[in-house]
Amino acid sequence: MNNHSNEENTDNSLDKKKSPAFKVLESNAEKFLMVWWYGALAKAERRNTQPKVHVAFRELLEDYTPTDNFIFIDANITDLVSWPIGTVWHHERLVDYLPLEIREFDIDHTDFKHTYVQTYKRDEKTGEIDHFLSNINEFYIKPSKRENCISFSLTDQEYKELLVPCFEFLVRGYGLSTELPRILTTYDEAERHERLYTPHPGEEGTWTVLIGDGLTLNDHVFIAYYQYSEYTQNAVRILFSSIAKHDDFDKKNHIYPKVMPWHEETRKIRVSGFNISGTNAFLGLRILGIDLPDQTLIRSVTKEVHQVKKPIDHNAPKPPELQLGSGQINVSEDQGGRRPLSQTVILDHEFEWLGSGPIAKKSKTKHERTITRSQRKKNIKETNTVGTGEPDSSKDVLNATINPTTNKDNATEFEAPEQGRIMDLWNACVKARLLNPSIVNAVHYYTFEEDFNYNDKPTLMAFSVNSETLENEDISDGEKQAYKNWCYANSNKTATRGALVIRLSLKNCPPVYIFDIQPAIYISNVEGKSIHKERGHSGLVFRSKTLEQFEQYISDLMKSLPLSEGSYSKTLQGSNLVTQLFVFRRSKSAGFSDGESTLLNALRKIGITNIQLKEKTEEKPTVIPPKNKRM
Fold this sequence. Notes:
Helices cover 18% and strands 29% of the residues. By secondary structure, the protein is α+β, with helices and mostly antiparallel strands. The protein folds into three domains: 4-97, no CATH class; 101-298, no CATH class; 374-605, no CATH class. It is globular.
């Protein structure tokens, strides 16, 4: 009997706030784990929440010899893009691929059926999984009511049948963003339409498409077919209904979604896989390339965003003096869901378009909209240096002092503290630039006043109390007091809390933005001794299509977070101003500082796994035994 461990994707504790995908790798960091198989789907417990997929990992030895130990998790359907079957992971990083045969086939998308590939044995008495088949040559086709693969008929080719796991075809055969399969498996038809495209005046005789926010231009071919082709719409209806019909299903049962081809043409597909023993069928575990259907009629509408700055109200009253309270900061643990990847970073280095790829001919029409960017009123009163956790006379002032760069009362921006989480993260980003010059072009911090800039110590933007919020009668007095308290970084109310915004400029890839909240400082009594500690919040890693959208999103964060006491609301996480967004928490890993570990964790969430933060050292040559890839 194999050793099975289960990681449930729940939100009941702090240690499970991370994506369960990366959590299971983190807890088994010393192991070599290979993605072995995608199991069934577990329907989401709440409406409009993406479903989960059972994923099996197989443990390998250091020389890649497979063991009989399997680890199972329930992953978001969007996480599958990070884990193609056959990929090997170590220390939460992709380190190798299972070498498989690569084949290219011409497939008729109308000549298909669904079948089931058996990858494990069940206990005859309990019906539970007893063990996974330890060799891929032991996989076999077992037609049943359950269907986990699409079977395409092949003619005039070496094989007569091509099998592709349904989840693989959904994640890599429909479009290039995981936002797309999330929408298709989560929302009913009415909301699906709203999220996939926006109705727009079209050119006569064309398929004019204005894709929804959060999707990419590389998705526009599928979306155009979805908008104009009844065949594609029916394919998606079948997919969604195969999930939705299980509204009252027994949780012990499993769902096998009916993933359908979405067009009717014959096109090439490149896959890596193997011949199923004793058959003339080829099982394509990974899609390495696809040829898109005809795009002659498709026209993509360009989006233009105009930025308008909201005028500053110089007559607005200053916030009332804050009352000293208990200093307790109510840190919300409800970080909600997270947005999936939605850029071409989902494609690994082996993927390439067959044929022309997405052409994206531009429509003659444009879609224009205006975004209002808030401007901040600057105060003019001179002030002294602000302390950060103890009275100014204390020798044990944590993080030294904070020097407002504007040198004004209630400074809108100030220099980062000497030590702590904020500087750790900034230093890790600087180190990433130094050690990875072929990947990271530059590192900058961002503020409204300085724009993008660089310094050994970055500038933070201060959270401020908004008078409109204090005058809002719908907010209770207790909530207003908590709101005011949160804007300070310590219980003495002597240090303004700030936020660090970082831009990592990457080569051949859109920049990545990191947003982190300055932790609150509190004193903990341990065995009669007072110890200063940081009470932190989660951060955000994201991308944005334009500078205007980025600036507007930062403005929204700075305005909204104090009222929610640092918790990222569904509105913030679902904002149309960002194309990718993930919540990350402080991380610890052996061999790295907390800041370095946190940075690597954040970048992995957005699909960047090749950043090195350990300086190379000269080592004596060692003889590495050949990898035994007996799969």
